[in-house]
Amino acid sequence: MNETAKAAEIVEFPMARSGECPFAPPPGLLELHKEDKPIRRVRTWDGNTPWLVTGHAAQREILTDPRVSSNVWRPGYPHTTVAMQAHAGQSLPSINNTDGPDHAHWRRMLTSSFTRRRMEKLRPAIQQITDDLIDQMLAGPNPTELNEALSLPLPSLMICELLGVPYADHDFFQEHAGVTNALNKTPEQSAETSATLRRYIAGLIDAKMANPVEDVLSDLGTRVKDGELTLDEASRLGHILLVAGHDTSANMITLGTGLLLQNEEQLALLRERSDDSKFVTNAVEELLRYLTIPHLMAKRAVIEDIEFEGETIRAGEGLIVSLPAGNWDPEAFPNPEKVDLARPAAHHITFGWGPHQCIGQQLARIELHVVFSTLFRRIPTLRLDADISELKFKEDSQAYGIYELPVTW
Questions:
Q1: pLDDT (tens digit, 9 = 90+) per residue, 316-325?
Q2: For residue 255, what pLDDT is reported?
Q3: What is the rounded CA–CA span in Å between residue 139 and residue 294?
Q4: Is pLDDT at 309 greater than 90 in this prediction?
Q5: Strand-pair category, 406-408 with 39-43
């Protein structure tokens, strides 16, 4: 095949979703599962042609390969936007952009704060907050908007309690988190937003160094006093946790509710078995698989030549490991287009795979378990108050979701 023909075969990434089924990944992405290999080149906004990995098994293999790097300064790293490319040049090392021993060091600073046991201790508080928010929904206007009534307040309250951030500041950090995740901001906007949030977190940590309590920012402050971290390094970790800790869960609650309200049979099953903890746990995994909130992740740079799936990937080339494609791989999940809350789905890769798996995934799972076992039991007549075609989906954000979800009962 000549070079012109090869170039014509390279498709653009990311691809557009279908208006008919905006909960599903782009049809063009799913079409790639019909190809012989789970890897092919795509063209991104800057004209570069990184490799796109679509197969579930291939993704789990490549995400554990030490020859690929999450370091945003590496040659070939496939930045999502011009703002993120520019911001990468100003980024400093942290848990999300380092590898090997450096990454292990950053992760060790947080591991004790995010153990399964510590997260389970939060379950009663999550349940109480969920019930309180639903009480307020029922006492308030009908119809209402779910994002503001439940989806944002719950994870925001919980990440504030866990980190030690004043919830009174939630408007401030929610607005800045939205800018951080947006794909349509300028390099200057992204840089200023990140700097503002880091200064805010640094001020909180500095105060907690004098008066520590039982929260993550106090833990980080202790590590600063012990010389394990600088204040700037600690603020970077706090910044990442604050943004990721509320925005992704909020999107998942809204998007998951919207999906369930479009699938009456599965919703009826969830209502019927809302007291069955094992079933609800599995239902949450299926929703995480189906929706794959981090829809543009994961990005890597190749640091050594790799022979992979019949292709030679050269050092200095980029990799895009499409998590939605992996979660919709029919070899891993038969009939992936079907929402099946009883499906064994815990092997999805929504939280990533390998050393960079999401450190807060257990908290997210508990929040979702509580919400989806409670919401439809408390409000069994809940339904959409708008046509799906009227909803605005977050294709312009790193975390997929719905901007507003009007509901009634």
A1: 999 999 999 9
A2: 98
A3: 34
A4: yes
A5: unpaired
Q: How would you classify the pairing of strands 11-12 and 51-53?
A: unpaired
CA distance 133 to 189: 33
Residue 397 three-state SS = strand
Query: Domain range for residue 60?
Result: 3-336+353-408
What pLDDT is recorded for position 9?
84
> Which residue's entry shows tokens 């960079």?
356
| CB 392 within 8 Å of CB 148 | no
CA 270 to the chain's CA centroid = 24
Give 89's pLDDT tier (boundaries 50, 70, 90): low
* pLDDT for residue 5: 37
Distance of CA 302 to the CA centre of its chain: 23
Query: Would you call 183 exposed, middle or buried from its count of C-beta atoms within 10 A (0-12, 13-18, 19+)?
Result: middle
Rounded (10°) CA dihedral 18, 23, 29, 33: -120
Q: CB neighbours (10 Å) of residue 93?
A: 16
Residue 267 lies in a domain: yes
**Is the pLDDT score of 53 beyond 60?**
yes
- Residue 345 within a domain: no
pTM above 0.85, yes or no: yes
Q: Are 162 and 58 in contact (CB under 8 A)?
A: no
Within a domain: residue 26?
Answer: yes
**Residue 329 and residue 336 in contact, taking contact as beta carbons nearer than 8 Å:** yes
The enclosing domain of 241 has a CATH number of 1.10.630.10
pLDDT digits over 1-11, tens only?
A: 444 335 448 99
- Is 196 in a helix, a strand, or coil? helix
How many domains does the chain fold into?
A: 1
- pLDDT computed for residue 82 by the predictor: 86
- The answer to whether 194 and 87 are in contact (CB under 8 A) is yes
Consecutive H or E run containing 307: strand 306-308
**Parallel, antiparallel, or unpaired for β 68-69 and 299-302?**
antiparallel
Q: Using an 8 Å Cβ cutoff, are 28 and 16 in contact?
A: yes
- Other C-beta atoms lying within 10 Å of the C-beta of residue 228: 14
How much is the average pLDDT of 194-212?
94
Q: Give CA–CA dist 271/144, Å, rounded.
A: 21
Tell me the H-state helices in 273-399. 277-291, 323-327, 361-378
